[in-house]
Structure formats: C-alpha cells, structure tokens
Amino acid sequence: MNSLGERIKQLRKQKKMTLAELAGDRLTKGMLSLIENGKAQPSMESLRYIAERVGVEVSALLDDGNIEELRELLLEIETLFKSVYYLHQIKENEKVDAIYKKLSAKKSDLTGKTYEEIRLLDFYIRLSAFLNYEQEEVTMFDVITYYEKIHAYSRIIDCYSFLAGDAFQQNDYNIALEFVLEAEQRIEPYKHLIDHIALLDLHYLLTVLYAAIDNTAKTQEHLNLALEIAHKNRIYYRLDDFYRFTFIQAIGQADEVKSKYYLTKLTQHAEFTEDKVAISGLAFAYGHYTNLIEKDYKKVPSFSKYIITKRYGPDDVEDAPILYQMEETYSYWAIGNYQKALETSQSITIPDYIHHPVDLSIMYRCFAVRALCFYELGDKEAAKSEILFAYHGVAEFPNSIYKKFIQEAYEKIRYGKRGK
Predict the structure, then answer these.
(1) For the HTH cro/C1-type domain, which residue ranges apply (predicted)?
(2) By the 8 A CB rule, do 371 and 386 touch?
C-alpha cells in the first residue's frame, strides 16, 4: 500500500483541502509538504491532528500493523519517562526491565526508517546505559543522523544532552560542554525550525556547563539568552531552574538585592505551579538566603519547615529534608549549638544524582560545618575525618564562597584555632 505521506495526500485531495487548510494552526505548509513527500515523519500528536482534520481515525492512516505496535510501545515508554523526575529513578522503576525486554525483542525491526523506529532506538540506547547493558550495534550518533534525515531537529538537542549528561556524571565537564557546543553548531542551519522549549534546554545546558568550568562571561551570556526566550514567548518551562541558578549566583556575590529578587521569583513560581521540586528548592532557598544574606540564624530551622509543612503540606516534597537540613545545620553551628547541628545533619548524604560543582560544593560545605562542630566539642579525630572529606571533595572545583568556607575550616582545624 502507499506510504503514510501518500495516504495523507490522497485523503487531503479527496477532501479538496489545500496544504494550508490541512496544516491549520498546528502545522506549517512546509512541514506538511515534507510529511506528504515522505521526507518527515509526524509525531503521534501531529498524526492525530491530521486525522481529525481529514475526518478519519488515526488507524485509517496506518496500514502497517507493526507500526501501530511500535507506536503503542513508544507511548508506553514515553509515559514511563514522564513519570519520573530524576533519571536514577528509572532504575528503581519495576516496569523498566519489562519494557527493556519488549524493546530488545523489537530491536531487529528498528532500522531507523520511521519516526517511531528512531525514537525507540533512542530509548533503547538510553535504557541500555541506565541499566548498564552494553550494546554496540547502534550509537546515539546514528540516532542523531536519523533524526536529522526526518527533520526532527529538536530531538537532536535532546540526544546531545544525553551524551553530555553521561560525561557530566563522570565529572568530565569540558567533554560535556563539547557535546552541547556540537549540538548548537549542528542545529544552527535549522534554528528557525526548532521549538522554543528545545532552545531553552540548549541554553540551560550551556549555562550550567559554562558555570561548571568557571566561565562567568559565557554563563551569563546563555543565561540571558534563555531568559529572553522564556519571557518573549511566555514560557514557564525551565524558569524555576534558571531562577534558582541566578539566585545561587547572587548569593555567591553577596548581592542582597538580586538574591531577594530571585527568591521572590522562586516563591511566585512555587505558588503558581505547586510543583514538589519547586517547593523543595524554595525551602532551601529561604534557608540559604537567611543564613548567608540576612544572617538571622535562629529563624532558619522553623521557617524552612514552615514552607514545607504549613504552607504546602507535609507530604509535598520527597527530598526536602536534605535541602533544608543543610541550612538548619549551618544555622545551629552559627549560633554555637554544635550538638544540635550534628544531630540535624546525622542522616545527610550526598545523593548520587548530584554532579554539578556548585551543588556538590554546597553539599560538602555541610560536612565542613560538621567538622567544625566536632572540633569545638573536642573530637579532633571526627573533625579531621569530616573536613578531609569536604576538602578533597571540592579540591578540583572552581572557586566559590562554599569552597572558601571549606578551605578556611580546613586551615582552622589543621592549625588548631578555636572559635569562629
């Protein structure tokens, strides 16, 4: 039977519709023409839209039972990925092995000829990496080439993001940056065809990675570009990440005005979205601002908890304890309640999904605080163990107020000077 594009063209002509009439306000004439001529594959959402416009069921556009089966598998996998926030949670999901087996069984059918095949190959590579399964038959670079052939340019950014993420987890920040810069160069000719959210992702990655290698000018450049895209197109996606990033930068520069401004933005975003991660970040941000800018240490323990338990509900945030316990620990240390600081931080560990130097430095700072508490309580061996963990943890990181704090704590414990 005819190809998908030919069937769409045939139905369009039967309905006596022009390209523009069928494209409507969801597609462009150019993209629809590419689809009809077999040079691009529509997403499932676009396919449903086209079917609705020509007055048929999606199944009427598909005559290949295998394609329908692949679409169903793709929908199942995409639903799984959307249900988790952190990638490490993929490994913990009981459905992953079953889905991976389904993908493996279909591997021979995934030749990269259709959007569904390419997308499933994409997921196959990702799941193989997450589950530590080796596979060398196809690489993410092959998938990138397939996406480029069907004009799925936004997916190219996502693939390079995966490659960068793998390097990032190994603390190879320069390698990760090279991948994203390659993505930026590769999509440059098609930039006008790429959706704004994908471009936001690109600039977010560049912002984060330039910060990781301490390139302040480039960090600010891409941060400004991202915020410009977001505000110009009224996109709320990623705004919380950018606001939190800018907030930490302002804290690091002891800029009270900017810190307070972005704290307000984080508050507004959390109230608007009621997102668990946003609420968790807000609790930390309030504690961080109060400790480092206001220096009102006694307010931190009760105020951060208030945000979680009173304002949003006790079950709203999964990772909140780690975030605000770090600030509680700091505040108890600052007012001289060393035992309470140690009790508060006793269960704190560094999650294996945190890899950015700034995030890690903030976490290591907590162990430096613990070291100082042990030292003031006379337990020199415990103090030495904690401070060496923190000191060596940030040794290769760019300079920051957190690294400076750790280094000063190290010197203090090393030379035996009591008092702050």
Answers:
(1) 8-61
(2) yes
Structural domain boundaries of the chain? 4-63
**CATH classification of 4-63, choosing from 3.30.420.40, 1.20.1250.20, 3.40.50.300, 1.10.260.40?**
1.10.260.40
Report the helix count and the strand count for the chain, using DSSP H and E: 23, 0
Provide the pLDDT for residue 62: 63
Q: How far apart are CA 361 and CA 338, in angstroms?
A: 21
The mean per-residue pLDDT over the stretch 244-251 comes to 91
- What is the spatial distance between Cα 269 and Cα 305, in angstroms, rounded to a whole number? 19
Tokens, residue 214: 């301490």
Q: Between 284 and 57, name the one with better pLDDT.
A: 284
Contact assessment for residue 202 and residue 157, using Cβ atoms and an 8 Å cutoff: yes
Count Cβ atoms within 10 A of the Cβ of residue 148 and give its class: 0-12 exposed, 13-18 middle, 19 or more buried. middle
Q: Answer for the pair 395, 357: CB distance below 8 angstroms, yes or no.
A: no
pLDDT at 321 over 70: no
Burial class (CB in 10 A: 0-12, 13-18, 19+), 389: middle
Q: Within a 13 Å sphere around the CA of 126, how many CA atoms are in the beta-carbon half?
A: 24
pLDDT band at 90 (very low <50, low <70, confident <90, very high): low
CA distance readout (Å), 220 to 88, 216, 308: 29, 6, 31
**Is 348 within 8 Å of 322 (Cβ atoms)?**
yes
Q: How many CA atoms lie within 13 A of 51 on its CB side?
A: 15
Measured distance CA(354)–CA(348) in Å, rounded: 13
Contacts of 381 (CB under 8 A, 6+ apart): none
Neighbours of 381 (CB within 10 A): 8
